[in-house]
Specification:
single chain, alpha/beta, Rossmann fold, seven-stranded mixed sheet, about 35% helix, about 20% strand
Length: about 325
């Protein structure tokens, strides 16, 4: 067996993070049933809160707005017009990423790419080992909520909310945004044609431009949720000089538009492996990280040939 040497030098055993294991049977039940019930509850309660807010405003117009308390144990400013916010409040995303963030047992920096209103940045901040948070959100209206939520819990000195997106080329780019579901914002073509979406211009930066914001002495845990642009970001991240400090990457995958070939090649080149999958069917999340064992060489990758795009992970 020939062993691949990651970019930057030969493979060496790393002091890898021990990630929590989730019971497969419980996960199956969760994704077959309980997650769908959480979605139904969040959508229903969103309208209840909107109606209650309108009544309260009518009778008590000077009443102060109070933060909402999420199922995840964090506080956020209410934004019940937005379906994504309701999902944040009622635990629609499940416990998996929250459990991973809570398990990290060494000082680290959390890079939150596609932070939205900051749910997972706030969850990461609950772990005292999380010494720095860099949260990227390119949509200005959503970024304002992100910054406000970080400030709400006093994270101004520990967290930085950047009003940019991450890609392999810097500049201005159009992004499609769903006004009532802020989590549906994408640089990719599959979102642009949806009737509910509108297009706005946002600012993109590269990994090199993030250097001034990322601490050079901390391992990085990276969350990427960008509705189809994940392959470009993973490729750029693992081609950068930050790759050797990446302890884990948690990213969203959708068989309908995710370019799995680019992700697989980028992981292979860096000596990374897919460690866990969360979800069923065509849409799920993946945890990737440094491989605990040497990787066997894949000649097709070394010749610059990747598997066909948009295959299942």
């Amino acid at each position: 067996m020939r062993i691949v040497e990651p970019a930057g030098g030969p493979w060496q055993p790393l002091a890898t993070q021990q990630w929590p294991l989730h019971n497969p049977a419980r996960m199956a039940r969760d994704f077959l049933l309980w997650r769908h019930l959480r979605v139904i509850r969040a959508r229903a309660m969103r309208h209840v809160h909107k109606r209650a807010g309108a009544v309260s405003q009518a009778f008590f117009p000077k009443a102060a707005v109070r933060p909402a308390h999420s199922t995840y144990g964090v506080r956020m400013w209410p934004n019940w017009d937005d379906r994504t916010f309701a999902y944040c409040q009622y635990g629609t995303y499940g416990p998996y990423l929250a459990d991973l963030l809570a398990s990290i047992d060494r000082p680290f920096c959390f890079l939150d790419v596609g932070a939205n209103q900051g749910l997972f940045s706030l969850i990461a901040a609950k772990n005292p080992q999380c010494q720095r948070i860099i949260a990227l959100e390119p949509v200005p209206d959503t970024h304002r909520l992100l910054a406000a939520n970080l400030a709400l819990v006093g994270l101004e000195g520990r967290a930085e909310a950047l009003n940019v997106g991450l890609s392999d080329v810097a500049g201005t780019h159009a992004i499609a945004v769903n006004p009532v579901h802020s989590g549906q914002a994408s640089l990719e073509a599959h979102m642009a044609g949806r009737p509910a979406c509108r297009s706005i211009d946002i600012t993109l930066v590269t990994m090199a431009e993030l250097d001034a914001h990322l601490p050079g002495d901390l391992p990085l845990f990276v969350k990427i949720d960008v509705e189809g642009h994940e392959p470009v970001i993973i490729d750029a991240l693992l081609a950068s000089h930050h790759a050797r400090r990446v302890m884990g990457i948690f990213y969203e995958h959708d068989n309908r538009w995710t370019d799995n070939a680019t992700i697989a090649h980028a992981l292979y080149r860096a000596g990374f492996a897919k460690l866990a999958r969360y979800g069923r069917g065509k849409h799920f999340d993946v945890l990737a990280g440094p491989s605990p064992v040497p990787l066997e060489r894949i000649p097709a990758f070394e010749r610059g040939i990747a598997e066909p795009a948009r295959q299942r992970a």
